[in-house]
Specification:
- By secondary structure, the chain is of the alpha+beta class.
- The chain is built from eight helices and five strands, in the order H-H-H-H-H-H-H-E-E-H-E-E-E.
- Strands 2-1-5-4-3 form a five-stranded antiparallel sheet, with no helix packed on it.
- A hairpin with a 6-residue loop joins strand 1 (156-158) and strand 2 (165-166).
- Helix 2 (21-28) crosses helix 3 and helix 6 (75-123) packs antiparallel against helix 7.
- It starts with a helix and ends in a 7-residue tail after the last strand.
- The structure holds zinc ion.
- Zinc ion binds at residues 159, 161-162, 164, 188, 190-191, 193.
Amino acid sequence: MNLIKIGKFIADCRKNKKLTQEDLAEKLYITDRAVSKWERGLSLPDADKMLDLCNILDINVNELLNGEKIDMKDYEQKNEELLLELAKQDEIKNKRLITDMWVITITAFVFYTALIIISALFLGEGPIFATITIISTIILLAVCFYGFKLEVDSGYYECRHCHHIFEEKNYFKLLFAPHAGTSRYQKCPKCGKGTMAKKVMSKGENK
Ligand SMILES: [Zn+2]
């Protein structure tokens, strides 16, 4: 997505409507600084403002995100390009989340193990060692839960029987499901079979 192009497009449409940045900001209940940021390509309008903005400027969301007016004959192609672009962004975001998950949990385990070994060597058994063990175990569990949350938040699950791709954000249900790596045992919402659902990063990974 080209923020500079989108920004210029917003500015052009606004001027066509004979609105100042202040006028536009007022209609959207936001500051004129936010409008100025969009127009300079520094940020995108929030999703909840996009529809109102499009209504005011007499354009549609597709045109807004493409940064240009779209002829009806080009419409389908542009639409497809946009969907692909959004899917790509989604995949990038999901890959980042899952990388964060691995980095955070592995680092936590390394620190935990090192801390326990060092304390055992230098402190020996006793109340201080016990306290350190208990506190660091609690911290480790918290970090693991955070890692688990990142894992659930990223991507989708694929049924190994029918290859249907689905989303499952129920932490409680997933937490107690048997798992191997990032695959988790679930019931496929489409074919209804129990499956070791595979983690996939995009809806299009279905082969
Ligand atoms: Zn299935």
